[in-house]
Automatic annotation (TrEMBL):
Belongs to the SEC23/SEC24 family. SEC23 subfamily. Residues 415-506 form the Sec23/Sec24 beta-sandwich domain. Residues 1-35 are annotated as: Disordered. This is Protein transport protein SEC23. The gene is SEC23B. It is found in: Cytoplasmic vesicle, COPII-coated vesicle membrane; Endoplasmic reticulum membrane. The lineage of its organism: Eukaryota, Cryptophyceae, Pyrenomonadales, Geminigeraceae, Guillardia. Pfam families: Sec23_BS (PF08033), Sec23_helical (PF04815), Sec23_trunk (PF04811), zf-Sec23_Sec24 (PF04810). GO terms for molecular function: GTPase activator activity; zinc ion binding.
Length: 734
């Protein structure tokens, strides 16, 4: 037998694990040793339920079984790293962890996932086992030792600004002010390039300080290799450090004008988005010695962080690759995605794929009240690790998103996520900012690790939601999960992070229900529904009906009480889960699945943010927080959280609602005068500084938009009784 080595945090020692070995068949099992001290908690991991049932059928009883994990949330800290290669099970590929069974005299250990026997020389002897950190802590970070010194040279990263000039002159004037403000706060060593587009693509030479000089590329087709060679042979400078080209870029920005001859409506103006993005990516790639047209499909995994493209868009693509036929689109809008939109989506998906292979990310900042078809642009940004962010106008939020997009990953790139689970567990779905392996190297890795996926962007606030069920009844005391991630740091060190969790198995229904995390369960259910809408596998009506059915199934499966009504016998909802229907009501009637957002673009952007957000951010989107604000005797703002159902605008208070991407502020009738303007300004300052909630002190993306209206949202998420109450109070106040 191999004695189990587990943490001392447990009250009783773990049982020994028998192994079928002829060599040890006749031996008497030794007494289990005392457990080694250890930290079994991962603060970035949240289970929907702290236990699982012994019967597999109960995992299909409506309750979601899964977890939400944010493996990149902790900043890189070299003091925590183990500078050695991770030891893996030779059978299933899981990393050696604190829950394995170890035979101290031989160094053999049994994998807690598949039961296979492995051998490690560094586990021979009790002292060696007790000094092994992998056998004490649930979270371990490895860095493979490098030959020679670690590179401290800062990698060259180029940011290309790609600006749509086919907008109203008034909007273009506001854009100029916002761009200049954003550039003024950037690191002066940041390397910047500048491209504009309307009917053609204009690539600016930053070495010409006396006047704005640009080279023209056609907007009706993708740039050819000949076009790119011509640009390279001009001797022009297409990217330069900001301290060297700030004055040149500033003069270029001030000189921007809308096309004189394009008198069409803003939506229909000539706008060659695809060729402009391709040109920007090709220029960044050429600065790193790569060709945009090189065949990289069969190559190794791309090294990210080489460049970033920030696309500012004021309308939909209308000419060139990726454009749509709006006359056909209008006639087929009711039937769903038009053929031209399908072609545009496929085109932008291919651009995003090639962009990722070149190690470049692309953000799209849409500033328009028009519908531009965000979904096709998301096909590009999701693949290469970028984002699409919607704005109604230029201003502080736009400037913040433009700057934050350049530093969003903190220099971390090339993310990989892998999930391991016990043999009795079936991983049904992984939701998050992930894509399938694409290169030969990634596909070879996926052959051995079936749950492996690629994370194009390595962001601290990104999370991955894992949903699972049981294949068969469980007879063990625990089931195990392990999340293994890898990413590259700013100086090209490869960090592998492992987090191993075990969940107890119980046959007691009451204990199981008490172990349910209602908030995490609600977020997982909502993410599952939103993901089905986002990928087009189900309609809004279908997922709403499915959520209603889940509530009924939970009541029928888990309730031990029956209520007799006129319509017949009805299972009551378990008291331990009373908050769950409220969350699901918000999901169905809020902006995720409801009709609050008139624009499908806004809904698509919010759904994308929700699917990739961690638990705290997801809860704010799903069930917004409502706060009241008053001044105490020391003129200090006091915040009090209110239930969302209480939508009263208290006459002596300022009320604001935190919806993660937007913050709505209202003033009561007794605090709406000019004398209270300093109070409101102080409140706005607190909101912008995220000083009303501990979790809001961290920088978010996208930046919150502060607005003074949102009654429609409150009325939509309120219950019918609250709705009538709000109407009465609004009528009485007016």
């Amino acid at each position: 037998m191999l004695p189990v080595v587990e943490p001392t945090a447990q009250a009783q020692p773990a049982a020994s694990t028998p192994l079928k070995s002829q060599e040890h068949a006749g031996r008497v099992a030794p007494e289990p040793p005392k457990e080694i001290l250890g930290n079994t908690v991962d603060e970035h991991w949240r289970n929907t339920c702290g236990a699982v049932p012994t019967r597999s059928s109960l995992t299909k009883g409506g309750l979601p079984f899964g977890f939400i994990v944010s493996p990149f949330a902790a900043p890189d800290d070299s003091n925590r790293w183990l500078r050695k290669a991770a030891e893996r099970c030779q059978s299933c590929g899981a990393v050696r962890n604190l829950y394995i069974a170890v035979e101290s005299n031989t160094g053999r250990w049994a994998c807690n996932f598949c039961g296979a026997i492995n051998k490690s020389e560094d586990l021979k002897g009790r002292d060696a086992i007790e000094s092994c950190r992998e056998l004490r802590d649930a979270v371990i970070e490895y860095v493979e030792p490098t030959v020679g010194s670690i590179s401290t040279q800062v990698k060259r990263k180029v940011t290309m600004l790609v600006i749509d000039t086919a907008m109203r002159q008034k909007d273009l004037d506001e854009l100029q002010d916002s761009l200049l403000k954003a550039l003024s706060v950037l690191d002066k060593n940041e390397e910047i390039g500048f491209i504009t587009f309307d009917a053609v693509v204009k690539v600016y030479d930053l070495s010409k300080q006396e006047c704005a000089t640009a080279f023209i590329l056609p907007g009706t087709r993708s740039p050819s290799q000949y076009d790119l060679n011509m640009l390279g042979n001009t001797g022009a400078v297409f990217a330069a450090p900001l301290h060297a080209c700030f004055n040149t870029i500033s003069s270029i920005i001030r000189s921007l004008k809308t096309p004189v001859r394009d008198g069409k409506r803003v939506r229909a103006r000539s706008r060659c988005v695809g060729p402009a993005v391709e040109a920007a990516v090709a220029i960044v790639a050429s600065l790193h010695g790569n060709s945009f047209h090189a065949n990289a499909d069969d190559g190794i995994s791309p090294q990210g962080g080489k460049g970033h493209v920030s696309l500012v868009l004021g309308g939909p693509p209308t000419i060139g690759p990726g454009s749509e036929d709006f006359e056909v689109e209008a006639s087929t809008e009711a039937a769903g995605m038009s053929p031209s939109e399908q072609q545009a989506t496929e085109y932008f998906g291919k651009v995003g794929h090639r962009t990722r292979l070149l190690g470049i990310s692309t953000d799209v900042l849409v500033v328009s009240m028009l519908s531009i078809g965000v979904q096709k642009l998301q096909a590009m940004t999701m693949t290469c690790g970028g984002e699409v962010v919607n704005h109604l106008h230029f201003g502080e939020a736009f400037e913040s998103d433009l700057v934050n997009g350049m530093y969003r990953t903190g220099g971390r790139t090339s993310g990989v996520v892998d999930i391991h689970a016990s043999a009795c567990v079936e991983v049904l779905r992984i939701i998050g900012p992930l894509i399938d392996p694409a290169t030969r190297q990634e596909e070879e890795m996926a052959e051995d690790l079936p749950n492996l996926a690629i994370s194009p962007s390595v962001e601290g606030r990104s999370s991955y939601t894992v949903i699972y069920s049981l294949k068969e009844d469980v007879h063990d005391q625990y089931i195990y999960f392990q999340v293994v991630t890898a990413h590259s740091t700013h100086n090209d060190e490869r960090v592998l992070r492992t987090s191993t969790m075990r969940i107890p198995v119980t046959d007691n229904t009451a204990n199981l229900l008490h172990a349910v995390d209602v908030a995490a369960s609600a977020v997982v259910l909502a993410k599952e529904a939103v993901a089905e809408v986002k990928d087009g596998s189900s309609s809004l009506e279908d997922v709403k009906a499915q959520l209603n059915q889940r509530v009924q199934t939970i009541a029928q499966t888990w309730s031990d009480q029956v209520k007799v009504t006129i319509g017949g016998r009805m299972s009551t909802f378990p008291a331990q889960l009373q908050g769950l229907p409220k969350y699901l009501f918000f999901a169905q009637n809020g902006p995720l699945l409801g009709s609050i957002l008139n624009s499908e673009d806004d809904a698509n952007v919010l759904r994308r943010i929700f699917l990739k957000s961690n638990l705290e951010d997801s809860l704010r989107i799903l069930s917004p927080q409502l706060f009241s604000c008053t001044l105490n005797e020391q003129n200090v703002l006091q915040f009090e959280e209110l239930p969302v159902e209480d939508t009263s605008l208290l006459p002596d208070r300022i009320v604001f609602m935190d919806h993660h991407t937007q913050v709505f502020v209202w003033s009561g009738s007794q605090v709406s005068g000019v004398e209270f303007e300093p109070v409101r300004q102080t409140l706005l300052s607190n909101i912008k500084g995220r000083r009303w909630h501990p979790d809001r002190s961290r920088q978010g993306s996208p930046a919150e938009k502060v607005r003074s209206h949102g009654q429609r949202f409150l009325l939509a998420v309120a219950s019918e009784a609250s709705y009538r109450n709000v109407i009465k109070k609004k009528t009485r106040k007016s």
